[in-house]
């Protein structure tokens, strides 16, 4: 494991360290606030370092890296409590344009999946974006368009931690979109779901580290908190749930990368990752706040910078109920004869 909370699958340690320093420096001079906006100075710094379009093709101005490097970058931002639409811009919106052989310039982007009525709710970071890559169904097919935000009706909203989660409306009849293969839409959904698992895992790792640090340094009744068996049990459960979530997420990430997002069981693995991270969050957040006591509920303490994001992100791009249902459906479909092979691969 690296300091950012996700396994570095051959990622250059110097690159990982550089990512961490960028966000650490930013966090030091930018304490958390109630509202979250994209910081243009940080955005420019990331662009200059080649991190803004980390996975983009070099021929299109990207850095040509892969999802392992992207996972480290996302985890580094979470580790330092920095909120910025890296995943939405690089891994979702710009990737989709490139995958569909469409031009992707340096404008700030996010992606939105519109309904038949041309509405998308909970769109991350639409507020503050310059263009939105919108996808919409047309019968049994899909179309995609790279649209200026001025041409869309955007109603601002926020999630639990103040990140923009907006409602986007478009008149699809006036959009001149390009055809989009259904398989690319499926991959977009997979990538969106796995992004949040990676971020939640990074938050859970930080919660674990803070909890261990707290119970090792605080003294009650003449003894360190870490000497009390009840506290030890709480920490053990945090560590176990965090490890389970991380293992499930890394398994899905490995299958995705090695199969170019087309492995036969990838949807099941992503569903397992999302289910595990969702349920782990319940235990980790509860236990961490019990360990920290009243101190952990204050705005000045950093615990909330990780517990609240974990709770917010676990329900985005699919609720816990949705992902639990996906796992259940896959198990039922596999049946008694196929369940073991479904789990073990």
From TrEMBL:
Reported cofactor(s): FAD
Cross-referenced InterPro entries: AcylCo_DH-like_C, AcylCo_DH/oxidase_C, AcylCoA_DH/ox_N_sf, AcylCoA_DH/oxidase_NM_dom_sf
Cleavable signal peptide: none
Superkingdom to which the source organism belongs: Bacteria
Keyword match Flavoprotein: yes
Stretches assigned to the Acyl-CoA dehydrogenase/oxidase C-terminal domain: 198-318
One GO molecular-function entry: acyl-CoA dehydrogenase activity
Keyword entries, A-Z: FAD, Flavoprotein, Oxidoreductase
Keyword Coiled coil included in the entry's annotation: no
Family: Belongs to the acyl-CoA dehydrogenase family.
Protein's recorded name: Acyl-CoA dehydrogenase
């Amino acid at each position: 494991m690296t300091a950012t909370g996700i396994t570095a699958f051959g990622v250059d340690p110097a690159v990982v360290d550089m990512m961490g320093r960028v966000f650490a420096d930013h966090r030091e001079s930018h304490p958390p606030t109630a509202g979250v906006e994209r910081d243009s100075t940080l955005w420019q710094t990331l662009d200059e370092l080649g991190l803004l379009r980390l996975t983009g093709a070099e021929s299109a101005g990207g850095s040509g890296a892969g999802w392992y490097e992207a996972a480290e970058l996302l985890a580094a931002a979470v580790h330092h409590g920095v909120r910025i639409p890296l995943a939405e811009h690089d891994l979702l919106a710009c990737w989709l344009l490139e995958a569909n052989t469409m031009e992707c310039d340096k404008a700030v982007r996010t992606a939105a999946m519109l309904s038949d009525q041309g509405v998308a709710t909970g769109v991350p970071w639409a507020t503050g974006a310059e263009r939105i890559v919108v996808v919409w169904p047309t019968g049994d097919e899909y179309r995609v368009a790279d649209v200026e935000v001025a041409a869309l009706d955007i109603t601002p909203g926020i999630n639990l931690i103040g990140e923009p989660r907006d409602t986007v409306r478009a008149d699809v009849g006036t959009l001149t979109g390009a055809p989009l293969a259904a398989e690319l839409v499926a991959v977009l959904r997979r990538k969106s779901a796995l992004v949040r698992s990676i971020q939640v895992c990074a938050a859970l790792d930080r919660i674990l580290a803070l909890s261990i640090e707290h119970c090792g340094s605080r003294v009650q009744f003449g003894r360190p908190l870490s000497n009390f068996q009840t506290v030890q049990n709480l920490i053990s459960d945090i560590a176990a749930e965090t490890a389970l979530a991380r293992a499930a997420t890394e398994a899905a990430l490995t299958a995705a990368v090695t199969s170019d997002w087309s492995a036969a069981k990838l949807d099941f693995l992503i569903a397992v990752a999302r289910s595990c991270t969702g349920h782990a969050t319940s235990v980790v957040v509860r236990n961490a706040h019990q360990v920290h006591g009243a101190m952990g509920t204050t705005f000045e303490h950093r615990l909330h910078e990780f517990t609240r994001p974990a709770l917010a992100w676990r329900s985005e791009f699919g609720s816990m109920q949705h992902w639990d249902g996906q796992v259940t459906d896959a198990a039922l479909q596999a049946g008694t004869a196929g369940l073991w092979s479904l789990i073990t691969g």
